[in-house]
Amino acid sequence: MLGSRTIGLATAWFALFFFVPLAFAAAGPLRSPWGTLSIRQSGQPYNCPALAPLPRDIVAYDYYTDKRFSIPDPARLRAYNEASAAFSNVMRQAIRAADFYLTTGSRPAASCVLQILNTQAASQSMTGAMASNQSDYLRNWTLGALAVTYLKVRDADVGTPAERSRIAAWLASLARSTQGYFQVRHARHTKDGRNNHLYWAGFAVMSAGIAADDRQLYNWGVMTYRYGVAQIAPDGTLPLEMARGRRALHYHLFAAAPLVSMAELGEANGQDLYGFDHGALHRLVARCVSGLENNSWFAQQTGFAQDEPGPRLLSSDVSWMEPYEQRFPDPAIGRLLSQVSSMEYNFLGGDPPPVVKRVDIPRGSPEPPSTR
Questions:
Q1: What are phi and psi of 9, to 5 degrees?
Q2: Residues 135/79, Cβ–Cβ less than 8 Å
Q3: What's 350's DSSP letter?
Q4: What would the pLDDT profile of 179-191 be if each residue is shown by its tens digit?
Q5: DSSP secondary structure string, 21-71?
Q6: Which of 3, 278, 321, 325 is most buried by a 10 A CB count?
Q7: Is the separation of the CB atoms in 203 and 197 below 8 Å?
Q8: Domains of the chain, with CATH numbers?
Q9: What is the pTM (predicted TM-score) of this model?
């Protein structure tokens, strides 16, 4: 086990390496892609469910049985699904209300999102002890989804100032806990401190940073993005995800989702994250697309038949590609997107964001430094 001094030095090196180019961020409020939308509000009714607060302490455990973390134990997977059911429901209900507001302008739906989030914030849900690494992951995914639902309705002018302040502070508190967990894991050189889990943490913390207008949290998200993209090999793969055996393609898709989503959050704030490391993210996206079209390359490289794609394409496989395809048109991506009827992805907070061009950012906004 590494000592605290070693962990501290490693974390300091990590922060120094990635944060120095980001020292600019001090002026102007952080922006959300959904903040660029012009929503015509309506009084269309919305049936808001009464949801109980999620627990402060999370007790959930992993379910894989092999060293590649690719084969789930059925009994352990059932136990995890039961433990995470309430979290999934809160995410799902907040997402439904937020996306209903975006499509109909329903103020009651926007108020429902605030009601759900305020219930959690007032009870300080998920701020307590985590029973395992899997518990931290569950908090991380839930944070990202709920932060995005807040961003989707933030400009609806619903709820009271006290409620909005409480929600933003709660999201920021969860983000700092997530940041602390992953900084220690990264310093210890654990897999979850370097693989897709870190990228999902970056997405959650970055989203919460925008919600709370906290530049430090936002910048930490950008840092994890830079780290993740720097891992992309010349052939478009991520080494730690290639080690996942039959789930290698699945975990490439799972890693690409938060990375592309963070690039979109960066665009809304004037940062060309897509261009970082000579556009390495494009190689990862291309590898994911080719894998969904024909997964034989992944099978050959890993020595395992892949379990993705399944009999039918899932929205979680491709929904994150929608803003990417709008920004970088690709017929192959268009064909994949046409195979799903919904773009909803719970961990990303529902439907993907609108595409924001950096030229749309108001004049007078601070010009960020290059991320190359």
A1: -65, -40
A2: no
A3: B
A4: 999 999 999 999 9
A5: GGTT--SS----GGGG-----B---------PPPPSSB-----B-STTS-S
A6: 321
A7: no
A8: 40-197 (1.50.10.100), 231-372 (1.50.10.100)
A9: 0.91
